[in-house]
Task: inverse folding
């Protein structure tokens, strides 16, 4: 196996750790709406990618590639992420985790039929094992979060039977999110042409930033916000988090798609809960046997994937 493949596997496994660190950095610092956060991080991330492209890649971009990547951005960042947020509000974290766990399998299907990826049987087994481990880690995290949220007065959580969330619509949103997200990644791999990861991310996040800012102006820009103003330190925390979450992480993960089979790359992206585990231990949280088993399975799955593509 070439050194580039080894580097892609290592980068794909480490990138979720960068995301986990970024999310930890900006935790509780953002006080405005999720739409505003999405617009801010896309704008800042695309600016950083633009700086990289300006320094290292001063060349024209093929019009056909630009159009395909714009379409990929519309599907994967604007529509899919919006559906994900809507589904999360309806289903809650634990139900969303079950649907999100399907992404590696959808990637294996689309990678095989649309990109011609051929992964040995050990690689597909690694996808299953790793996805199961990540699922256990995610469920553990979601249950802890829900336990914290349940510590409220009974009057705040009492609802009538008729007001239960429309779960069917939530599952539809979540399923479409999975399909669009993976299909957008497939388009990116198939139609990127000669462009680098930085150029691809500049186009995708740049278009997403423009559309999200436009939506924010139309929906929230003229309304007076009740959110608490953010201090300069909070803005710096969020900006630093964006550097890790929306710049360094996609810079690496998009490149891994160009080197590894799509199923392997997408499976490696899902390892954020594995990296979040030592952070929890650092802050004194106990690791349950289920979380420990999930960590072992996820790590074993990564080893299987590495062996399969060597």
Result:
């Amino acid at each position: 196996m070439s050194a580039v493949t080894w580097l892609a596997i290592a980068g794909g496994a480490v990138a979720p750790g960068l995301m986990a660190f970024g999310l930890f950095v900006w935790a509780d610092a953002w006080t405005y709406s999720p739409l505003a956060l999405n617009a801010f991080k896309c704008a800042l991330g695309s600016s950083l990618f633009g700086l990289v492209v300006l320094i290292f890649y001063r060349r024209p971009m093929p019009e056909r590639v630009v159009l395909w990547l714009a379409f990929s951005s519309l599907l994967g960042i604007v529509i899919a992420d919006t559906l994900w947020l809507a589904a999360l509000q309806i289903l809650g974290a634990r139900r969303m985790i079950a649907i999100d766990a399907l992404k590696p399998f959808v990637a294996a299907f689309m990678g095989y039929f649309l990109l011609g990826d051929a992964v040995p049987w050990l690689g597909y087994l690694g996808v299953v094992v790793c996805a199961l481990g990540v699922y256990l880690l995610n469920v553990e995290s979601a249950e802890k979060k829900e336990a914290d949220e349940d510590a409220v007065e009974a009057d705040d959580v009492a609802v009538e039977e008729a007001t239960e969330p429309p779960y069917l619509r939530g599952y539809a949103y979540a399923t479409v999110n999975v399909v669009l997200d993976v299909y957008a990644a497939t388009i990116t791999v198939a139609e990127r042409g000669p462009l680098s990861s930085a150029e691809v991310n500049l186009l995708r996040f740049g278009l997403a930033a423009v559309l999200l800012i436009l939506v924010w102006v139309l929906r929230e820009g003229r309304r007076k916000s009740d959110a608490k103003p953010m201090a300069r330190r909070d803005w710096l925390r969020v900006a630093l988090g964006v550097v890790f979450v929306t710049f360094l992480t996609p810079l690496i993960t998009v490149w891994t798609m160009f080197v590894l089979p799509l199923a392997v790359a997408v499976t490696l992206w899902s390892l954020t809960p594995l990296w979040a585990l030592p952070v929890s231990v650092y802050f004194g949280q106990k690791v349950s046997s289920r979380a420990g088993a999930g960590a072992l399975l996820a790590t074993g799955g990564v080893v299987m994937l590495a062996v399969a593509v060597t």
User: Anything to note?
Assistant: Residues 151-163 have pLDDT under 50 and may be disordered. Residues 126 and 301 are 4 Å apart (CA to CA). The longest helix spans residues 63-91.
